[in-house]
Batch of 2 targets.
Target 1
Amino acid sequence: MTTPYDTQHVPVPRAQKLARDAAEAADVRAYQTHPDVVALRVERVRTQVDRLCWAGIVLGLAFTMTNVQTFAAAGSVAWSLPWLAAWLLDPTVSVVLLAILRAEQVTARYQVQTGPWVRRAKWFTLAATYLDSPKILVGWSCRGRADAL
């Protein structure tokens, strides 16, 4: 183990070095627990959580979009007008849902109260988007087949 030296290359006693290290640790701890530093850390975590949530929302909506298109196209020829229109069915509602969720995110961050219509619109568009997906999963698209359910 090497002996610490001061600026004039004189050995520093262990007690002085320990006291200096303790003072430095106290300074670091004071900065780490400062409200602005804590707020910055919380903001970084919030940003990560927001990005992960938005990625999950977009992937979920992409899943429902393909299922709704399959259900709405119902045997239409690929690239025909009904087939293309079926691709627009789910995004029409999903874009409104994304706009409501983003507005709710911003208003909640700044603690702005929204009316009951925002909540109703959010749940209506969410239901309209996600309730079409189970139809495909349980076979409701197999029209006329008694064994589909």
Target 2
Amino acid sequence: MKEIEAKILEVDPAEIRRKMQEMNAEKKFEGKVQSEFYDYEDGRIEENGILRLRRLGSETILTRKTDEENQDGAKVMEEIEFEVGDMDEARALLTSLGLEQIHSSEKTRAKWHHGRIEYVIDWYPDIPALLEIEAPTQQELTEAIEDLGYNPDEAKDWDSHDLYQHYDAER
């Protein structure tokens, strides 16, 4: 499935929550997110994407994203994602295939859905709160950004690596 997303930096979480309530968005998750990223020693996975094992509350999700293109302030990636039963078992499988954990991260997340749009507030250590919006099309993404009162020109097509680099934060 194609993923089209953008980030708005340094948002006011209380204001975003108020807007989610006003639009009757459905809250899907709030809590800690633990992510581990895997690759082979030669780095062939990160050459064009990521392989991530993530725990969101009681769910454990394995995700492969491959770079597509970035357009108009949005990151566009091909994404394959599915739930796995147990993080420790998934980790053991990945390492048995010769993959190594290359880095990990933790953050706090609040997630809502409204129609075909996903809205996420992320709090990384040492990085101000940010809003991530994901939509099935570029036009819907632009409209969702504008519906919240932001200018699409403010949108960033960044991944977490770019965020850490921008804020000179430890990963």
